[in-house]
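Q: What does the predicted 3D structure of Membrane protein YfhO look like?
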Amino acid sequence: MLNPAAWMAGNYLVDGQWGLYNPLIWVIAVFSTITPSAAGFTTIVKILFLLITATGVYALVRSYNTRPAYGLLAGLSVAFAGWTFHMDAGTWVTNLEVFSYFPWVFWGLRHWAFSARRAGLTFLAIYLLITTGYVQGAVALIIGFVSILLECIAYRPARRFVIRVLLMGLAAALITITVFLPGLASVGVTTRSGGISNNDFLTANLNGLAVGSVPNARPQVNGYWSGNYVAVPITYMAWFLPALALVQWRRVKNSIPVLRGMAIFGTLMLLLTTSPSSVGPLRYPIRNLPWLTLAVIVMACVTLDHGLDPARINRRQIVLFCCLTMVPFWISYRGTPEHFKGFIVAAGAIISATLLAVMITNRMLRFSHVRSRTLGLFFVIITIAVTTTQTIYLHGTSSPFGWSLESSTKALEKPLPGAHGDVLVIGSILDLKGTTPSPNSAGTGFPPNIPSGYWTESSAANLWYLKSSVNTLNLYTAVGNSSASRDLCMETFYGFTCPDAFTKLFTKDATTGETLADLMSLDSVVVIVPANSDAHQIATTYSTPQGWHIANIGTYTVTWARDQTTPVIGSPTWSSNGLNYEIVSETPTTVKLRINSVPSEGGDIVFSRLAWPGYMARGAEIATPLRGYLLRVHVPASNTGGTITVQFRPPLWNLQVIALALSLLIWLGLTLFSIRSGRRDTRLRGDAELVAH
């Protein structure tokens, strides 16, 4: 629930993304502690979620009464679409996790709405999605529910099923309260707040979306790279989208109403994907692109299956297909003309392969349903070839970050030689000695190519979690604490600080007369050597405080350590004159003190804890935080000889527990109803036909 030693990153329920309620993440967490290779284990986990994605899309497309070949085509295409493959599977694993569950959610909701079946599996997918704790998935889930509800309303025979969807939605809403309420109740002290603005950072424009059928496009997207055009096709959806020109639309007129819900979902996701760069705490709208891609590919594959017959394709359709294929390539060429040879080869290969597949299936096969199915298999083969080619030629730039990381978990545990106890690292690897810009960051400075030797002395961002022998303040967090971040000039995502933090740590606080390092119970301070200096110069620039010594002078860092270790993080570090106490017991969430004496006007006690909302005190009262973020309690004079207990529970904790319990009860009820409904009605048709209504 709370880890005071992790400071800004230690309020796990407020952060949300730790997945504390998610059993699959529990399993991943356990195995991550015993793996010898961080890179190998990470790869296995990401492949797992890509498999969950692909199989979920396959099941969803099949639920529209579609043949297996097109379900396979959709599953492969969605899993290896641009943003999912190059960004989420490369770096943004929480977005990959929540997206992988969503096809199963939509599949289950349609079964539940139209046939009163799959309630248990549907809720399980919803539960896993929400409890991952990534708000992007929760937003998509809300839009998914709205889309299914509107589909039920639009399809007259299904209007009576609206109550089913609402009950499942109620169960989902209660889980959402459990997971996200701590963050909402604490947003006032975090760094994740703000209005609506647009700086065009990681937003999707129509130019970028227009090249969604170009496998080697360099779309126009402003992000963590140099210039306006990213080096990988992150907006790529599927090469076969122009093949919709070959469809016999009279044959799909009965399929179009079936796709109402998915069409509504796709439209809403398009609006969300192209929204401003910041809407309150929500940022980077292009992260919604996987859900838009899902909607587009599902509708395309269902339409192709129901309306594609090679024998009925005429010349006009072929010309239209060629034009629709070439136009996105022309847009790509206009943006990055230096890659024109690759665009010509890719466009020619796609057009030739598609027309060849049409010709073979038309001439060699007799029955229309066999021709359509076989053409779908040809599309699968072309998709595999396209994805393989992308991987071979773009693997070096599949992620925009160039950290030169160690892959061994043992190697990642070694940094901070000479440090002990609780540590703050000062400086930024962006200014690190020996750092050079990566190929994707020329002119921006970020992301940098880090010299490999740096990782033997220091670390960055979420890599600090692998350093088990010390506690580091510089941990990655998505929320942060605004007052602490401002006082330490710390950037929460990567844990960088400005050089002035060293001076601030050893300057006496005006209220208590103690240094900030003492108030925070720090045992070690590590300074990163900037590019314009060297370690010995840094060691002489900063004077060694009393009670400290230089523990290590390396190539990239200098370490100061206390002569004696301080009490554990979370303990009292200062009290008013005349206030005497002793610690009775202490846990990460609770501290109990016996008060031996208190001044007549009462007194204060400061703890080496962040004053998160949710702290309560018995025998004392929570006072205004010291420096805006250090927990402080006021002890009245009447409590002399008594005890005080300071305890943390997330804001509205009882409501969260009740919401979770009610959600599980509703899940149980819906599951029992689903089982009884399936047993009672033996005349029900097959799942695919039912859900396709």
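A (community wiki): The structure tokens above were generated from the sequence. Residues 441-445, 681-690 have pLDDT under 50 and may be disordered. The first strand starts at residue 196 and ends at 197.
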